[in-house]
Write a sequence for this structure.
């Protein structure tokens, strides 16, 4: 038994040092008091009825903050820079809620690229330079001057293999970004 | 809402008085190490080593109970489903038990937690004994403790509830674990594995294991 303990400890220690050399990316919960003042002021001004959850995300590219809230039965994610300026606002919706015109454009684009696909998640990204106009997203007087992109998570078949993709697509149906990703391993839920 | 219901369900199941009565209680350690090697985009080869040490069985002691070697061939049938075919070699005192099994796994990723289902069929082979069979169903929930996903150097909570039926009796397992994502390639879990067996009998068997599992992706 002592032998097993020694082997386990040796392997454990050597693996810790080996695996510490890797890409840094981390997302974690923060409190309202840990976020930049302009971002918390903006969120407070919207007076959401539901609880706002704050997250920080750190990577080699820098640090951002994100406020997540449910409003009128939609999930919103408001992303801020480290200084508290709004980067974008994302609204999670059902694909069928999009206008017929945009649905057709997206479907056409995806059909050209993939043999077969299934849309798993749809988010509408709103961009604007003016903070006041961002507020109209949460009122009945939505500004028509937003730049809009659509971020989709799809399960698609490409060259015979089925994978998950994150697709960023604009209002004209043009694919701006395509990222193949694998869900994080679930080894501990399977074995 | 679904999240709250699931946690409540697990909590209620864990609080069944029959499961937690103290007769025939056995306590021990259950360390396990799991090595996963990706063969290609759809298949994995998983090997594990598990031992058991008893520290309480009617009185305090420290005895080695068994050692398990397992080898599993896993085939991914979609991004969240897989079939596993495996073999376990168990040495328990003077006994050698061979076990083959088939698993079907289904893992759902929600915005703040993962839900895993495992259905299993097992066959036990032992010399001079009849082959026996067992079915299992396990539900596991993994919830990050910081943020919406488990990143490197972050903790998570894993709760499991498993039902094992060998066509004569039922065993229920409740497994609350605290996990730590050491790196992108390995994670460690610490926690309890409470098992209540022979639930159709008057005298049920209970074991409480302090479990440590180290998952390593090679």
């Amino acid at each position: 038994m002592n032998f097993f303990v020694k082997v386990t400890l040796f392997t454990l220690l050597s693996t810790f040092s080996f695996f510490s050399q890797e890409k840094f990316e981390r997302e974690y919960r923060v409190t309202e008091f840990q976020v930049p003042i302009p971002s918390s002021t903006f969120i407070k001004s919207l007076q959401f009825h539901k609880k706002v959850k704050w997250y920080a995300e750190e990577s080699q590219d820098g640090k951002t903050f994100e406020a997540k809230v449910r409003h009128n039965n939609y999930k919103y994610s408001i992303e801020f820079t480290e200084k508290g300026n709004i980067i974008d606002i994302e609204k999670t919706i059902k694909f069928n809620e999009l206008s017929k015109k945009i649905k057709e454009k997206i479907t056409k684009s995806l059909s050209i690229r993939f043999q077969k696909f299934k849309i798993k998640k749809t988010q509408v990204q709103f961009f604007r330079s003016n903070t006041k106009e961002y507020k109209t997203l949460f009122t009945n007087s939505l500004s028509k001057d937003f730049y809009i992109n659509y971020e989709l998570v799809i399960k698609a078949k490409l060259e015979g293999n089925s994978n998950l993709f994150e697709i960023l697509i604009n209002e004209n149906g043009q694919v701006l970004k395509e990222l193949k990703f694998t869900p994080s391993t679930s080894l501990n839920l399977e074995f | 809402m679904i999240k709250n219901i699931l946690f409540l369900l697990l909590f209620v199941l864990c609080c069944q008085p029959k499961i937690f009565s103290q007769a025939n209680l056995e306590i021990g350690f259950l360390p396990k190490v799991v090595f996963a090697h990706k063969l290609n985009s759809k298949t994995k080869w998983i090997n594990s080593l598990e031992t058991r040490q008893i520290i309480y069985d009617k009185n305090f002691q420290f005895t080695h109970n068994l050692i398990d070697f397992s080898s599993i061939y896993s085939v991914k049938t979609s991004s969240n489903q897989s079939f596993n075919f495996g073999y376990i070699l168990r040495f328990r005192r003077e006994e050698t038990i061979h076990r083959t099994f088939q698993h079907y796994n289904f893992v759902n990723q929600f915005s703040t937690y993962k839900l895993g289902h495992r259905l299993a069929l097992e066959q036990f082979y032992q010399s001079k004994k009849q082959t026996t069979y067992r079915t299992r169903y396990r539900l596991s929930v993994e919830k990050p403790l910081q943020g919406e996903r488990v990143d490197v150097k972050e903790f998570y909570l894993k709760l499991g509830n498993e039902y094992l039926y060998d066509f004569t009796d039922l065993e229920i397992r409740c497994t609350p674990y605290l996990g730590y994502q050491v790196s992108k390639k390995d994670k460690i879990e610490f926690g309890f594995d409470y098992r209540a067996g022979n639930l159709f009998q008057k005298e049920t068997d209970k074991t409480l294991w302090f479990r440590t599992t180290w998952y390593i992706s090679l």
Notes: The mean pLDDT of chain B is 89. The first helix of chain B runs from residue 2 to 14. Chain B has one domain: 2-217. Chain B is about 5% helix and 70% strand.
